[in-house]
């Protein structure tokens, strides 16, 4: 019984333990937070609800993307079709980008689930048609691009199954692009679904359209831009755009149009006229413009016929164009025009006849053009202007640059009383102008006559009281007198750059009168690219220009800037002196320029910045000093506090303690001033060793320029040291004098004693001794030298071969040594090892000691180690006997042969005494 009781208690205890542990586990599970699952979509999705699915080789639209997508990009994949279920999950989609796929089929309900759709891009696919009713429920649609597909008919693309379907909801349409397809015809029914809709831009360009039905675009209430460039119309028919078609800009360029077919004006009703504002028929092959060619275009304001083959124009060609303002006939083949060519276009304001074949410009062409304001005829071969008068009296701009005009006289511009701008630049032949040539255009404000070859100023500008801007740059100017601008008081801009002017041409040296006297209103003067190297000698040149704001002296060969050069220029804001050769700037050269904002001194040869150079330029904002030779800046130079940009890059700055203050100044202004490019400010090779080639920011003056205690201590003990040295010198004065005498004798030398005999007194003038292995050098080098430079030496012994025959060998050697003026021994590694050759050397040295004459010359043909040399040779060299070393360097060989020649002149007596 006890046993059973024990088992019951044990089971009860085990059950309680299990229940307790189960509660703990459950509690732990409850306390562990749940993690949201990580979603890996098919393609990346940005926080802005944009799915970027490009370049993934997709064959279908991903279905696992977020339902709140706004933009879906599936471009550049392998999609072949779009089905009714492709976008069912993305009913918030606003933009679909599916270009550059191989889509050929689209189901009818593909876009029905996308009520918010605004942009559809399906270009660069294989679509052959897209019935517009597929998009009839997309009322917010504004951009449709279907370019670069295979659509052959707009009817199959835009006409609904129910003809006459009208999608009034498309009020936001902006762009419809059907370019680069295979459309061949455009009919009135093609755009029927667009009835009463307006489109900002419709592109049907780059199709092979050969047929355009009249009134093809009549269903549009308005077209902003209709682009039909690069189609294949042979004829431009006005009837295409009848029935009140409103088009802001119509482009039919490069379409092979040969003819313009006018409409019958008598049968045209007021409500049928085209309402086109701009028409571009450029880059076609029109040969002529018929009478009333575009009659009925009552709203046309711009007509561009540029780059056709037009050679003739009828005086009634532009009749009916009552609102035409801008006519472009440039780049055609027009040689002449009839009188009053543009009178029918009564409101015409601008005509461009540039790049034609006009030899003469006849003012009568523009009779009746009362509102003509601008006439542009550049590069048309015009050699003369026929006698006027001009009746286009309201003409304000005449551009006849880059022609062949030679001379302008008083009658050239008669009648142009309101002309404001005249451009005759680029007439590079012998160009001339009479003194009264501009008297008939007294209202002229801008005159451009740059690049006209040679031009002599003979007073043509004296009475141009309204002239504001005169450009004579890059013409070879000659100034007849100094009073050319005496009354041109209104002139504000004068450009004489590149005009071959010298400083003395601009100032009368005798009277000091400046060419610029009278230019009291001049604000901009450009003299760049003129040889003004003597500018510093003529300080009164710019004095009359009290209103000058900008002065450009770039690349004028200026070497120095003197004080007073810019005196009286108190209003100057910009001074350009870059790309000159300036080495010296007077410390007060810029004083008085109180208004100066920009100073350009880059690309010069300035080496030093003086302390007061920028004193007085208190408003200077931009200072350019890059690419000079500046090594240091004078201590405590006054840098303008107004600076906002400072450039001193590419200068060889010496980063040492003398520049410490400048480095500290850079620290102070860092962040306040643009130091562009600050990473190009480097320390030169003359800087402290650790800073060479480093950026200047590596220079910390506190580390390199601390107070040197040794210098201070040395300065304290210097007087004591000087006194001590003085006492020692006095006590040892006689010993010092003696040593100085010996040093002088060693340095200055003494009289050299030479032998009384000359080379001619000896049996042999030269004895050349060499080892057999070195014979090549004698033949290749020594003999040519003797033949060319010392031909007078006729008695020469060349080695053993020239010894006396029949004598003993040593006797023969001693004989030639004794009877030779000079003995030359060639030394090489082989000769040093040869016992017989060393015997010859010993015999020559013993003879030299016996005669006390330096008759022996040693020539080393190659490097020989000291350990390899015999004791005799080393002893001889230690006694400063003459020896030469052969070299492979050409310049070194010249020095070698010169020393040989000198050594052959005479024999010095030996002096082995060395002063001690």
From TrEMBL:
Gene Ontology cellular component annotations, sorted alphabetically: plasma membrane
Subcellular localization(s) per the UniProt record: Cell membrane
Domain TIR: 760-904
Keywords: Cell adhesion, Glycoprotein, Immunoglobulin domain, Leucine-rich repeat, Membrane, Receptor, Repeat, Signal, Transmembrane, Transmembrane helix
PROSITE patterns: LRR, TIR
Topology with respect to the bilayer: Single-pass type I membrane protein
SMART domains, per the entry: LRR_TYP, LRRCT, TIR
Any GO BP: cell adhesion
Transmembrane intervals: 709-731
PANTHER family referenced in this protein's UniProt entry, alphabetically: AMPHOTERIN-INDUCED PROTEIN, SURFACE ANTIGEN BSPA-LIKE
Family the UniProt entry places it in: Belongs to the immunoglobulin superfamily. AMIGO family.
Name of the protein described by the UniProt record: TIR domain-containing protein
Organism: Strongylocentrotus purpuratus
């Amino acid at each position: 019984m006890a046993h059973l009781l024990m088992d019951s208690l044990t089971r009860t205890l085990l059950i309680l333990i299990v229940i307790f542990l189960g509660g703990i586990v459950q509690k732990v599970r409850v306390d562990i937070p749940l993690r949201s699952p990580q979603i890996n979509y098919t393609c990346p999705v940005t926080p802005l609800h944009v799915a970027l699915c490009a370049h993934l080789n997709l064959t279908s639209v991903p279905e696992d993307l977020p339902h709140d997508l706004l933009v879906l990009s599936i471009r550049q994949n392998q999609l072949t079709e779009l089905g009714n279920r492709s976008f069912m999950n993305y009913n918030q989609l606003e933009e679909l980008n599916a270009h550059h796929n191989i889509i050929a089929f689209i189901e009818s309900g593909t876009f029905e689930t996308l009520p918010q759709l605004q942009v559809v891009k399906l270009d660069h696919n294989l679509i052959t048609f897209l019935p517009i009713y597929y998009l009839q429920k997309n009322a917010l649609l504004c951009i449709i691009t279907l370019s670069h597909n295979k659509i052959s008919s707009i009817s199959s693309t835009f006409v609904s199954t129910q003809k006459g379907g009208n999608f009034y909801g498309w009020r936001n349409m902006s762009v419809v692009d059907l370019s680069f397809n295979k459309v061949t015809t455009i009919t009135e029914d093609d755009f029927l679904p667009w009835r009463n809709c307006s489109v900002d831009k419709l592109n049907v360009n780059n199709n092979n359209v050969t047929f355009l039905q009249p009134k093809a675009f009549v269903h549009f209430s308005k077209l902003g831009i209709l682009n039909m460039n690069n189609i294949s119309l042979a004829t431009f028919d006005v009837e295409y755009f009848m029935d009140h078609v409103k088009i802001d800009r119509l482009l039919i360029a490069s379409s092979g149009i040969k003819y313009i077919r006018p409409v019958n004006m008598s049968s045209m009703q007021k409500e049928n006229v085209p309402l086109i504002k701009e028409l571009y028929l450029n880059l076609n092959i029109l040969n002529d413009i018929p009478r009333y060619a575009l009659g009925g275009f009552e709203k046309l304001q711009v007509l561009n016929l540029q780059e056709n083959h037009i050679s003739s124009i009828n005086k009634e060609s532009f009749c009916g164009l009552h609102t035409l303002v801008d006519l472009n006939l440039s780049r055609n083949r027009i040689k002449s025009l009839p009188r009053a060519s543009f009178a029918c276009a009564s409101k015409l304001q601008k005509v461009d006849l540039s790049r034609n074949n006009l030899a003469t410009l006849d003012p009568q062409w523009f009779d009746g053009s009362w509102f003509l304001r601008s006439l542009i005829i550049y590069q048309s071969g015009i050699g003369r202007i026929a006698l006027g008068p001009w009746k286009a009296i309201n003409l304000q701009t005449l551009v006849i640059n880059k022609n062949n005009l030679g001379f302008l006289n008083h009658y050239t511009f008669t009648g142009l009383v309101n002309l404001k701008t005249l451009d005759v630049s680029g007439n590079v032949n012998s160009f001339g102008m009479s003194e009264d040539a501009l008297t008939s255009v007294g209202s002229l404000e801008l005159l451009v006559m740059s690049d006209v070859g040679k031009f002599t100023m003979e007073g043509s500008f004296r009475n141009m009281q309204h002239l504001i801007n005169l450009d004579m740059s890059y013409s070879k100017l000659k100034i007849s007198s100094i009073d050319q601008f005496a009354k041109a008081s209104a002139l504000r801009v004068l450009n004489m750059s590149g005009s071959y002017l010298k400083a003395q041409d601009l100032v009368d040296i005798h009277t000091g009168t400046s060419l610029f006297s009278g230019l009291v209103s001049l604000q901009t003067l450009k003299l760049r690219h003129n040889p003004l190297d003597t500018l510093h000698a003529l300080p009164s040149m710019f004095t009359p220009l009290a209103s000058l704001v900008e002065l450009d002296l770039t690349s004028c060969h200026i070497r120095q800037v003197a004080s007073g050069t810019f005196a009286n220029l108190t209003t100057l804001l910009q001074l350009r002196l870059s790309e000159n050769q300036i080495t010296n700037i007077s410390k007060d050269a810029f004083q008085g320029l109180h208004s100066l904002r920009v100073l350009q001194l880059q690309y010069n040869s300035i080496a030093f910045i003086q302390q007061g150079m920028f004193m007085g330029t208190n408003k200077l904002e931009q200072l350019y000093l890059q690419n000079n030779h500046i090594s240091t800046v004078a201590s405590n130079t006054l840098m303008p506090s107004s600076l906002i940009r400072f450039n001193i890059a590419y200068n060889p700055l010496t980063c040492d303690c003398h520049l410490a203050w400048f480095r500290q100044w850079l620290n102070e202004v860092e962040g306040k001033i643009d130091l562009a490019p600050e990473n190009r400010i480097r320390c030169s090779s003359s800087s402290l060793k650790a800073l060479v080639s480093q950026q200047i920011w590596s220079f910390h003056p506190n580390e390199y320029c601390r107070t040197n205690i040794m210098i201070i201590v040395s300065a304290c003990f210097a007087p004591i040291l000087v006194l001590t040295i003085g006492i020692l010198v006095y006590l040892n004065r006689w010993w010092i004098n003696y040593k100085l005498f010996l040093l002088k004798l060693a340095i200055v030398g003494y009289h050299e004693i030479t032998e009384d005999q000359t080379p001619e007194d000896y049996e042999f003038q030269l004895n050349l001794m060499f080892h057999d292995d070195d014979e090549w050098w004698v033949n290749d080098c020594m003999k040519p030298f003797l033949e060319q430079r010392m031909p007078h030496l006729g008695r020469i012994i060349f080695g053993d071969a020239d010894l006396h025959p029949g004598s003993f060998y040593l006797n023969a050697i001693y004989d030639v040594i004794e009877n030779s003026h000079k003995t030359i021994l060639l030394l090489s590694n082989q000769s040093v090892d040869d016992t017989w050759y060393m015997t010859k050397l010993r015999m020559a040295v013993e003879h030299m000691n016996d005669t006390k004459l330096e008759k022996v010359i040693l020539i080393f043909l190659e490097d020989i180690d000291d350990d390899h040399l015999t004791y005799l040779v080393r002893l001889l060299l230690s006694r400063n006997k003459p020896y030469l070393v052969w070299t492979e360097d050409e310049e070194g060989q010249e020095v070698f042969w010169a020393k040989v020649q000198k050594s052959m002149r005479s024999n010095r007596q030996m002096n082995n005494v060395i002063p001690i």
